[in-house]
Amino acid sequence: MDIVTAQEMYEWDRAALDAAGIEGKMLMESAGRAVADDMVRHIRKQDKVIVLIGSGNNGGDGFVIARTLLNRGYDIEAWQVVPDEKITGDARVHKEIFMASGFSVRPYSSLEKLMQSFQRADIIIDAMLGIGVKGRLRNPIAEIVEAANGLSVFRMAVDLPSGLPADEGIVDFDAFHADYTTVIAAPKMSAFLQHTRPYYGDYRIVEIGLPTRKLPPVNRGLWRKEDVRRTLPVRGKNSHKGSHGKGVMVGGSLLMPGSIAMAGRAALRSGVGLLTIATVERAISSISPYLQEATFVDMEEKEGALTGQATDQLSGYDGVAIGMGMGRTRGAKRLLEAIVQGVDAPMLIDADGLYHLKEILDVVKERQSPTVLTPHPGEFAHLTGLSIRDVLQSPFSCSREFAAKYGVYLVLKGPSTIITSPDGKQRVDVSGNAGLAKGGSGDVLSGILFAMMLQTDSLMDALGNGCVIHGCTAESLTEEKHSKTDLLASDVIEGLSRTFRTISSASR
């Protein structure tokens, strides 16, 4: 499913008219009905519902929604919050249909009068402003939004809450705070940003009849369970351990053996055929009981941490993962640089590896084999020199620019994880929950991603699948066995077997 900017949504609407001949008033009728069909799942016949109607497409949708619900016997009170001369074009057509159907609309004259209706309301539906809003709200909509946000009612929004920007990078705004939003055709970029996502509440996307084969392509989309089922490699009857990847993980130290142990176990649980752990000799005894199926290579160490060159020990593998628990010593940095420069194989870099990477990004840029980086926003801010605030406000563009500049695949982790390829394609994973906000969760994700990388030819599929599998495992564990408080990264590893079993059985 595509994720669009405001401009891309405008282009889709234009394509519906130019390429398929779908007139705006017809599309508006389809959109309003689809929204009404979705919203009735949250509306009871005894509920008093206020529909706030503005100008433009959102307002036109509001007239269709109000008419549809009134026709079905719901208790609807429609309020037009803009002067009548601002209701033009297709929205004017649907206002006339609304009135000709025997219904009346109340014109906004003062907040005091509207508040009298608000006080009796159970639900407020926001159909005031659409995707073209820029800057802060002005009265009367500003005062209406402020009043609605202060009420103990269920607030619903059409497409996106009024006042909320559709795009990233905008922080100066006022917006309707919805409990639920019915998104039209495709989610907008702001549904995946930390500072704008809460305004949507829960949301659902409805299809409105756009000509999908005629729409301009968008290189940005959601990656979901059904995508995993469609693309997850099937293990052949005649396959063997060498068929599913031979990988080496470099990391761990005397004082931090757990990171590489969890990453390794997650990789094994995710189907990697052969796994080697390259770590300091004194850490092997604490890691090996946890990874009985892995082999080990003892690496040069200094004061309990990895150091040296040692790239000859890492040849012959289908892929390398590095960084988990390797430490932040100068020796670890030298080792990372040697491996990045000297090992010609697909590589995943995480954790301490990302810390050292900032000073050798030009070396990464010269690699011929694919490189995958898996930072959280703080690590990405360190890599780019941006502030964490800048990263969170514009994660799509920041990720795309960085991936293109250095030729890397970037997995920017968070509640909405953004996966970006060097050519600018982006996928977003929204699975998971707050139970993953624990130490070790990133190590487990890296192990899953590494295993996926070694088992498929498509890196974007591998990274998308790994992220969804990680998140869905946390979701199922907190539904059935754990709370978000007690869930551990190691619990997620042991829950992977059920996730893979469920996905495999559903895809047959």
Automatic annotation (TrEMBL):
NCBIfam families: yjeF_cterm (TIGR00196), yjeF_nterm (TIGR00197). Pfam families: Carb_kinase, YjeF_N. AMP binds at K413, G414, P415, S416, T417, G442. It comes from the Bacteria. Its cofactor is Mg(2+); K(+). Keywords: ATP-binding, Isomerase, Lyase, Metal-binding, Multifunctional enzyme, NAD, NADP, Nucleotide-binding, Potassium. Homotetramer. The keyword Coiled coil does not apply. Its EC number is 4.2.1.136, 5.1.99.6. SUPFAM superfamilies: Ribokinase-like, YjeF N-terminal domain-like. K(+) binds at N58, D126, S162. Transmembrane segments: none annotated. (6S)-NADPHX binds at residues 57-61, 130-136, 159, 325, 376, 443. It catalyses: (6S)-NADHX + ADP = AMP + phosphate + NADH + H(+); (6R)-NADPHX = (6S)-NADPHX; (6S)-NADPHX + ADP = AMP + phosphate + NADPH + H(+); (6R)-NADHX = (6S)-NADHX. Residues 224-503 form the YjeF C-terminal domain. Binds 1 potassium ion per subunit. InterPro entries: Carbohydrate_kinase_pred_CS, CARKD, Nnr, Ribokinase-like, YjeF_N_dom, YjeF_N_dom_sf. GO terms for biological process: metabolite repair; nicotinamide nucleotide metabolic process. Residues 9-216 form the YjeF N-terminal domain. PANTHER family: ATP-DEPENDENT (S)-NAD(P)H-HYDRATE DEHYDRATASE, ATP-DEPENDENT (S)-NAD(P)H-HYDRATE DEHYDRATASE FAMILY MEMBER. This is Bifunctional NAD(P)H-hydrate repair enzyme. GO terms for molecular function: ADP-dependent NAD(P)H-hydrate dehydratase activity; ATP binding; metal ion binding; NAD(P)HX epimerase activity. Catalyzes the dehydration of the S-form of NAD(P)HX at the expense of ADP, which is converted to AMP. Together with NAD(P)HX epimerase, which catalyzes the epimerization of the S- and R-forms, the enzyme allows the repair of both epimers of NAD(P)HX, a damaged form of NAD(P)H that is a result of enzymatic or heat-dependent hydration. Bifunctional enzyme that catalyzes the epimerization of the S- and R-forms of NAD(P)HX and the dehydration of the S-form of NAD(P)HX at the expense of ADP, which is converted to AMP. This allows the repair of both epimers of NAD(P)HX, a damaged form of NAD(P)H that is a result of enzymatic or heat-dependent hydration. Belongs to the NnrD/CARKD family. In the C-terminal section; belongs to the NnrD/CARKD family.
